[in-house]
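pasting for ref
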Amino acid sequence: MLDKVIERLHDPAVYAMPAMALLIVIEMLAIKFGDDPDERQGYELRDHRASIITGLGALVSSTLLRAVALALYLLVYEYVAPWHLSSTSWTTWFIVFWGVEFLLYWYHRAAHAVRLIWAGHQVHHSSQYLNLSTALRRKWAQWFEKMIWLPLPLLGVHPALVFTMHSVHLLWGLFAHTEKVGKLPRPIEYVLVTPSHHRVHHGNDPEYLDKNFGSILIIWDRIFGTFQPEVQRPTYGLTKQLESFSIWKIQLHEFATMVRDVRGARTFRHKLGYVFGPPGWRPADVTGTDTDTGTDTGTDRPEPRPAPAQLPGAAT
């Protein structure tokens, strides 16, 4: 296990940590001391601290789980894959890039569609701010994220290449979590995930919910009907805001709510629905308050709200 931890030190994301920290500080100062009073609302020191501590915990969790996943994927690669692709060939890296990109898109959609996965993923959406530190606000329960790569070792891709490419995607995600970058030239906006696209993804406004799942490329959202352009400044956070900076509450509150719902469910089918249904699922005869548990589930979609003023240049 120790050698896997040491190997993690050669991860591109780990190499980039000093630069990431510097960029976070620069952006924080630019927001805090900027001329735009509205923009200063995008900064909260307690939120920064919660995101950074959460990110450090996620790094530990990811390192341990990745060591286990790597061992399992190596067994698949060595004994199940019908061939082994060269780790130095550009065609292999081409396959890895597109494979990781495609699998991440569908995993990300699943994380918004299955409550058990959402209970972990909601950590990333729990901040009511969108800045570079929000990119670090990652779940500690990363087992599903580590399970999605099976098709690539089966195709003969060495698992180490898969995790390296995933780290590259995470680094791109840092760039996407900011309000300091407006809309980019149209050709870039059409192909790549930009800050504008990802601001939409973090919005809890009805028109922005469950949109723009892409990692580096936005083309999957355009192909599969989940694309939404940014037409107004999003309202960030969960549909029922988590009014807490507690690291443990950020990580565990939705798991606790899910367990409570399951324990209070009347039937086994309802129990399954509360775990594997979409966030906010409840039996058809239940409205508003959950009659199985007598409490608010905390995952309702909000009522539509009046649209704020349109962003300059946001029309498509």
